[in-house]
Write a structure and sequence with these properties.
The chain has helices spanning about 5-15, 15-25, 30-35, 85-105, 140, 165-170, 175-185, 190-195, 200-210, 215-230, 230-245, 250-300, 305-315, 315-325, 330-335; strands spanning about 35-45, 55-65, 70-80, 115-120, 155-160. The protein is α/β, with parallel strands linked by helices and about 350 residues long. A five-stranded mixed sheet has the order 1-2-3-4-5. Helix 7 runs parallel beside helix 10 (about 215-230). Mean pLDDT is about 85; it is low at about 260-270.
Length: about 350
């Protein structure tokens, strides 16, 4: 299963260590930030998600030193159309997988490294569920004081991007690409708001264009729009770019050509698939016909031109009937007796 456009943009922007550090700083309490050695922050290639959830989630894992010890920051990016109250259970499962991987790589491990679970959610609806594992336990039992020691106790830190303002995003220690990625993730599906706010980000686009890999990052953003926006929204987006950011219009045209080529390739692929299927069916039909002729010759001695023609014109079900009749027919004509 391939990643969604939301996954691709999130990973492109926050797989970058500088942006990851800025995102973590804005989510983690200051009292914990002071113990984190952000210079040690390192991406860890991994994917701990359940396959059934990959259409609605993405994840990133980083190792980092906390109070001089190894720790992990696990970032789960949620892009469901509604709040999933079972995220704490999913996080617990993913955290266990991380710890199991640690043990598999270090058989003499004395202690499990701590994990800071972060959830980034970007739907307009906002997050409407709890952030503690306790929230999943039946309150009638959870409120019994003695029961607490039998239940996992942890919470995750939430960044509800759909509710975050431009000013809040700009205050984060992210580069221009990281800021624009969050703004695009927040707004691109709300066409009117996105097109209205786009001109307000012109300084971020200018900064992005000056960056070393700025054009590549711009292409990632534009490609995201082309994959998420509907056709009308995309046409209007092209008009806004032409007016507000004309120097980037060539990048947008490149994306449009990519999409056109992708459409042609998909059509060609579908045609080839159909052709292969038709060829397979034709080959099976010819194989059935050849086998029937061989059976007829074996039993009746010869096959004339008229019989060959009838086999050529027969469909798959007719060929199956002929094969069944050969077993009991006394003459060739009995094989075709009810075929008219």
């Amino acid at each position: 299963m391939t990643d969604s456009p939301h996954d691709k943009l999130f990973k492109e922007a926050f797989g970058n260590v500088k942006n990851a550090a800025g995102q973590i700083r804005c989510m983690v309490p200051p009292s914990l930030v002071e113990h984190i050695d952000f210079a040690s922050l390192t991406p860890v290639p991994a994917d701990f998600r359940d396959s059934a959830l990959r259409d609605s989630q993405s994840d990133l894992l980083f190792s980092v030193r906390v109070a001089g010890r190894e720790a992990f920051v696990y970032v789960l990016f949620e892009h469901k159309s509604s709040t999933d109250r079972w995220v704490p259970l999913q996080l617990l499962r993913y955290m266990v997988r991380i710890w199991e991987r640690c043990r598999a790589h270090a058989s003499n491990l004395a202690y499990l490294p701590p994990i800071i679970p972060l959830v980034v959610h970007h739907q307009d609806c906002g997050w409407a569920a709890g952030t503690c594992f306790d929230d999943l336990i039946d309150p009638a039992v959870r409120d019994i004081a003695e029961f607490a020691r039998f239940t996992p106790q942890f919470e995750f830190l939430l960044d509800d991007v759909g509710r975050v303002t431009d000013e809040d995003i700009r205050a984060r220690t992210l580069n221009a690409f990281g800021m624009l990625a969050l703004l695009f993730l927040r707004d691109v599906r709300a066409t009117e708001r996105f097109l209205m706010r786009f001109p307000l980000w012109i300084d971020l686009f200018r900064s992005l264009q000056r960056a070393e890999s700025g054009r590549d990052a711009l292409m990632v953003l534009f490609r995201y729009v082309s994959m998420v926006a509907d056709q009308l929204g995309l046409q209007r987006f092209q008009q806004v770019v032409h007016k507000v950011l004309p120097e980037a219009e060539d990048s947008l045209m490149t994306i449009a050509e990519e999409m056109r080529q992708l459409g042609l390739e998909q059509g060609l692929h579908q045609g080839m698939q159909q052709g292969r299927q038709e060829g397979l069916q034709q080959g099976l039909h010819q194989g059935q016909r050849a086998l029937l002729i061989e059976l007829l010759r074996t039993k009746f001695g010869s096959v004339d031109e008229q019989v060959s023609q009838r086999l050529d014109e027969a469909d798959e079900s007719a060929l199956k009937r002929f094969a069944q009749r050969i077993l009991t027919a006394a003459t060739v004509s009995e094989v075709f007796s009810s075929e008219g």
